[in-house]
Amino acid sequence: xxxxxxxxxxxxxxxxxxxxxxxxxxxxxxxxxxxxxxxxxxxxxxxxxxxxxxxxxxxxxxxxxxxxxxxxxxxxxxxxxxxxxxxxxxxxxxxxxxxxxxxxxxxxxxxxxxxxxxxxxxxxxxxxxxx
Length: 131
Hints:
It holds the Pfam family Sigma70_r4_2. The chain is mainly alpha-helical. The chain has a two-stranded antiparallel sheet with strand order 1-2. The chain has helices at about 5-40, 50-55, 80-85, 90-100, 105-115, 115-130, and strands at about 65-70, 70-75.
């Protein structure tokens, strides 16, 4: 059975309408993508400092060497520094850690270690020379 001219006309109109709809859907999608791209910034285009602020770094105890001074745990990340501190006597190590990490004054350290203020300074100076 052969389609009539009317059926062919209807079919052509339908196909034409369908093509128009598909073309407009594609155009709308492309416009939407362009609008979205205007507001987006690629990670590779961001400054490094911004990316670092977005990053989350895992923190494990095994990444540090921990020294307990005055009831506070002081975490040393640098392996060379930690090794150098281990080679010092306990008093000299505590002296350095209290001064540089706990930000204690020579007077406060002297009271804790029961030595003179000048002794604290001298111990710290000698310890730094040895390391």
